[in-house]
Amino acid sequence: MLLSLVLHTYSMRYLLPGVLLLGSAPTYMLAWTLWRVLSALLPTRLYQRVDDRLYCVYQNMVLFFFENYTGVQILLYGDLPKHKENVIYLANHQSAVDWIVADMLAARQDALGHVRYVLKDNLKWLPLYGFYFAQHGGIYVKRSAKFNDKEMRNKLQSYVDAGTPMYLVIFPEGTRYKATHTKLLSASQAFAAQRGLAVLKHVLTPRIKATHVAFDSMKNHLDAIYDVTVVYEGNERGSGKYSNPPSMTEFLCKQCPKLHIHFDRIDRKEVPGEQEHMKKWLHERFEIKDNRLLLKQRMLIEFYDSPDPERRNKFPGKSVHSRLSVKKTLPSVLILGSLTAVMLLTESGRKLYIGTWLYGTILGCLWFVIKA
User: Fold this and answer.
1) Is the pLDDT of residue 300 over 80?
2) Distance between CA atoms of residues 270 and 49, nearest Å
3) Which residues form the Phospholipid/glycerol acyltransferase domain (predicted)?
4) CA neighbor of 257 nearest in space, from 237, 227, 280
């Protein structure tokens, strides 16, 4: 019975971060709303600068739990620039944690506030978060024939005109890769084969539309493309392989002791601008992730299937064990946690808190409905 209690307690490790991350959302939204009202008559760049700082506070709390709380060992391969840049971040997509990996890299460049996402359209209905991500520069897109490139171009152009710093995160596969989703993988491989493209094994065939629109709209604003390959190690006991990457709760329960991140910086001048050429270029980048076609970088295939045990569970080349200081992330936990606690201690504060969840969600959804 005692053993069962211990195991159950361990499996509930995600409760503390879950309560704080979700519980402080109304506090954060109230702070942002206050700034939005106060800055109504101020220059857009000033509003954006403070919004980026507010975003840093919340995301540093996220990183406290996903880095410091879990104790995950982060191994970086490649030369991550230490300075801020305007970039498009392209990565393979396996888990909800992938979004946080982008934050991890941005934080190491002091660019966390500049992170903005290209998101699936249905995520805009998330309570509070869906509305705020759109206000912070997130772009919601629909798949396939419903993709509205004009709307995306207009939004990105407004950011370029305003000189908004951009760390735009895109997952070109369009959905998460899972080894157990054989139908999805087979359909992706059939699509590639029909078009004469290399058939990929550990990633899905990348889609070009969002990446091309983003690059074409911001090419004079960008410094580089970041090509990132992520591997979660240790989700399956006694093996470097896994059936599926960890979910957020599994990650918070320390089921991923090591996180391998391979980084390539590609100068924007090296990226073809014409859509068909970019489509080929993007597929080749994903082919590099999947095969040994460039400088023997068998990124994912080498990672899993190498016959040499010494070469398994790591990318080719040297890695750097990267740690994010607790001093950088803990203050955010204390600030947002304390403000939320103070609000919940009074009856009026509790009413404001509940009202923010309820009416903030309703007004956010209504905003999307009217905008549509």
Assistant:
1) no
2) 30
3) 87-212
4) 237
SS3 category, 117? strand
168, 169, 190, 187: which is closest to 177 by C-alpha? 187
* β-strand partners of 120: 141
Query: Which of the pair, 5 or 121, is modelled with greater confidence?
Result: 121
Distance (Å, rounded) from C-alpha 250 to C-alpha 95?
11
Pairing of strands 87-91, 167-170: parallel
Q: In angstroms, rounded to a whole number, what is the distance separating the alpha carbons of residues 250 and 268?
A: 36
Question: Which backbone phi and psi does 263 adopt, to 5 degrees?
Answer: -120, 130
- Check the CA dihedral 330-106-22-135 and report its sign: positive
User: Does residue 211 or residue 3 have the better pLDDT?
Assistant: 211
> In the numeric block, which tokens belong to residue 127?
């309570």
| 7 has pLDDT over 80 | no
The Cα-based distances of 124 to 26, 207, 333, 362 in angstroms read 17, 21, 25, 12
Q: Is the model's pTM score more than 0.70?
A: yes
As given in the structure block, the two tokens for residue 344 are 């919940």
* Alpha helices, H only, 108-261: 129-135, 149-161, 182-194, 209-218, 248-252
Distance between CA atoms of residues 232 and 1, nearest Å: 32
Backbone angles phi and psi of 176, in degrees to 5: -80, 140
Cα dihedral 101, 148, 86, 327 sign: negative
* Residue (of 214, 96, 242, 82) closest to 157 by Cα position: 214
Q: What is the DSSP letter of 236?
A: B
E strand or H helix that includes residue 119: strand 115-120
Helix, strand, or coil (residue 260): strand
| pLDDT of 72 over the 90 cut | yes
State the Cα–Cα distance between residues 36 and 30, nearest whole angstrom. 10
